[in-house]
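Two proteins, back to back. First:
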Amino acid sequence: MTCFSYAEYFALFHSHPAPSRSAVPPESPPAPAPMGLFQGVLQKYSSSLFKTSQPAAVDPVLKAIKDGDDEALRAMIKEGRSLAEPNKEGWLPLHEAAYYGQLGCLKLLQRAYPGTIDQRTLQEETALYLATCRGHLDCLLELLKAGAEPDISNKSRETPLYKACERKNAEAVRILVQHNADANHRCNRGWTALHESVSRNDLEVMEILVDGGAKVEAKNAYGITPLFVAAQSGQLDALRFLAKHGADINTQASDSASALYEACKNEHEDVVEFLLAQGADANRANKDGFLPLHVASKKGNYRIVQRLLPVTSRTRVRRSGISPLHLAAERNHDAVLEALLAARFDVNAPLAPERARLYEDRRTSALYFAVVNNNVYATELLLLAGADPNRDVISPLLVAIRHGCLRTMQLLLDHGANIDAYIATHPTAFPATIMFAMKCLSLLKFLMDLGCDGEPCFSCLYGNGPHPPAPLPSSRFNDAPATDKAPSVVQFCEFLSAPEVSRWAGPIIDVLLDYVGNVQLCSRLKEHIDSYEDWAVIKEKSLPGPWRTSAGCGFGRPSGNTASNSWTLCLSRAG
């Protein structure tokens, strides 16, 4: 029913952390140029049969840095070899020294080429950034002392401080903050170092950042604050820390979802308890009008629902256009349904028209959701609480007939469901209950035994005259023409002419004739009966004559306790 919220977009993005931004310096030789087939064969055999394989050439500068050979590197500098030229990835020897944590080499290179201290690779990574990513604190401190800029970010606008928080390196964070790193710098998602440390529940880093000037109300691109992140990810310790430092308990994202709403959605019970204890407002709706109680009912979390019930406004629930009962019934959360009914939520609260339109069948009641799910227990709960079985555009009884669930049908009829239900949007000249039961003759007999009115089936407008072509049947609401003209009423004979029903025309008419008398078959019904010679005897039932009984079923509507006897008979057959 709903689209992703901003918070959900963030959660989806953040659940797959980006790979490390510190690229490994390339060492493999370049790929050979393409060659012809004959040249390739010659080279293959000449290299494998007549030559010994030679190891790839090793860059002496890179080897000296990897080995931490300060003397070799110093000799190269004295010889006048330029070590300030980047390779094809934009890496300088200074970057290599920071990456491998070779402090001696790093000092030599920095002093020899001081102008390269903040030079970036093609990924816009500085030596300081690489040293931080790799956790080389001595190199990190040396670069900062030499004047390295601490806030230069990579292509994703992630600074060394951000990466230190990502790696939970408290000492690196402390060093960077002491050297005036910006604690409120935002990456390309608007994410700050504090957001990152909160998501990892890293209290030590959070303390350093806040002491260093990090704003507890900083918002990312979706309006999400660090406290929202803590509630969303269930980080209770981080949540307590932020609340202690003045963060807004009722913070809301750009889609109006509150921190409490997100905690309920993700079923963080301890976080919900803490937020409510701190005075979080349970009546702040998101952009779709859903309250925390709605999402808790949808998730089926009984404990959270129980905690929210006393603090949720019934007026705000009504204003939302949907009851938590709808959501609990839709998801088959029976325990939550019981809790809501015990709290006296309106069992007949309808879906608002704009919400009902999201369903093809235009359902409006919680009872309808329970019947659609074939949930007999929930159906009984709602009916006992006073649910009206005749409020929906399509009667729940018709849904139960379609499912063939006799127990649900019994419950609905016992609580006043109209056995002669019609569908206002798809009008027929005969009860829709008969239409829904046509493909199961035993079910059709069962309904007729209970008093379903079969006479309208034989009240044809055209009688023995010619019939117009039968309209194409439509069982979908969205197939109805967009016009102000009232839909035409479908006659029984027209419906019976549908290809998927016509082969059962004779037996269906035969069953109905057992319950009606003195009727005239229209010309189209006669055509159906005449189409199969074994059905000729059916026509005789429609002729005037004494009242009849057939298959133990009395002619006309039953009286006394016939209905209860029929229930017993049908239930025993179902069993």
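And the second protein:
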Amino acid sequence: MLDLLGIGFGPSNVALAAAIAEGENPSRSLFLEAKERFGWHPGMLLDGARMQISFLKDLVTLRNPESPYSFLAYLKAKGRLEEFANLREFYPSRIEFQDYLRWVAGYFEHQTVFGARVTSVSPDFGIDGMARSFTVRAELANSGEYVTYQARNVVYAPGGTPNRVAGVAPRDERVIHTAEFLERFPKSFPDRSADLSFAVVGGGQSAAEIIEYILAKYPLSRVHAVLPGYSFRPADDSPYSNEVFFSAEVDGHFAAHDRAARLAEARSTNYGVVDLDLIEDLYRMGYEDQVRGNVPRLVLCRSSRLLSADAGPSGIGVTVGGPEGSRSLNLDGLVLATGYHRELDPEMFRDVIPHLRRNESGNFLVSRAYRADSAPELTAGIYFQGLAELSHGIGDTLLSLLPFRSAEIAEDVRQRSEAPSVDEVEYPPARHIEPDRATILETLQRFPLATLISSDDESEVFATHLPLILDRERGEQGVLFGHLDVGNPQVPNLNGRRVLAVFHGPNSYISPRTYATDQLPTWNYVAVHVRGHVRVLENQDQVVSGLASISEKADPSDGAYRLDENDSRIEKLIGGIVGFELDIESLTGRFKLSQDRNDEDRKRAMAVLREGAGEEHHDFVARIHQQ
């Protein structure tokens, strides 16, 4: 049984392995990687391409400058520290940074299985209906055999899957995504002196780097840049804008109500943008073509998109749509710089997904520590690396935050693996505690029939069901009036004692058929626990006044019955009852309303509760559902 199993061993889970190794009481962990060896964007390790972030934003330094897994430690180990310092360079080459990542990954080869393609992750349900671990099944590339592992937590770090413009770009050796550019492009077009024509679809950094590569390596070639906007847009890498990648920004984004707007505003720091130096280099190359009297080799297809692409024996027939209509191009090759998408593999996690909670937009709910929010029966943990941009901010898919995210996941796993003592168990759960005092007091007034519980010196427990009427104007938190039959055995053990009064609001059985998701049955309810000391009333007028208040509060409608305090019948009955007041010392609203379910399931459960609450309380149930 593993504490943690990581799926994927790219930079995210390499950073996690480092954080686990540096933490207290390292968890027992293993990582499965489908590739045969470590690799990081091998298709874009272009000569001269540099990192867009400082070497200080490696896997560990911003979290722990003394870490043995830092970029500076790598340079020292490779014997190049002085030479690198002599470069006066903050941005290493992409080739060197991959070598650094591979160097760190090498420290954890003993707990990594390469060539292991995970095929399924399944919850292990016990006879009590709870799943406290997962079974992970993987196929080994070298033998075709299957292996299984058991883990209490799974950390999913799939990286990005190339966007291939489904239904438009054909599967052909001359149609190449940037993810495989260096591996396939030189092989598909070995003659660099040939007169070739290409199109590059996309307007981001990768598209610009590919265009520069083709124009430099294939001097007779012509490139059509299919841009989604008017031109290449420069990246906003100014210091203030770059603070969006600070670790503290994750807290602000996670707590924000306008997450979508925040993401949209920050897009210019990362998506569809190009380093200004590279834009200027491309423009200069075009200008030099004009100086030489050459036909421009870079053609901008502005505000355009790829409509179709058909592979034939003589080339790739491409249709591009733009503001002035569509145009056809006959090309030798097509490069897709169309980015990546990240999602939870629906086939791999088909047995897990029904137990994960989603928001109203259908996105998985994720905790601040990157743990997927799950139904109560799934206590084993699923953690996401790079799939939580909506909830955690634009830095979620980038290298900048890896040191912090990995440490947060490692710490969350560690804390959850340490079983809490009985004193540390939170009961009732915080989600079942109603925080609004006005709602709690309204519950007392709407549902006055309570259970009064007390005990004597011998620990004999007494309970009586009776109406308790609230006077909100008296005492620090209010006063409750009630009365008992003089023969009730609870009476001699009441005056001056601390008691518990339980008020019962609407309640209902919630069938599994109520929910939209697969759930077990439960019971929802509204209750309030009141604690305080009792004072038995000796003054008969106070008792009679309290009795009159019962009718007034129980039926406040016009023309309703009101008790006449001078009614002769009261005189005959007053000797048979004992009136008392309860000075409220604490109020606890315990509202169990399917708060651990998704919005749709909670709405359905509330409808059942509302149906059984009585028409006069429909507004109350609707209101507590909104809180």
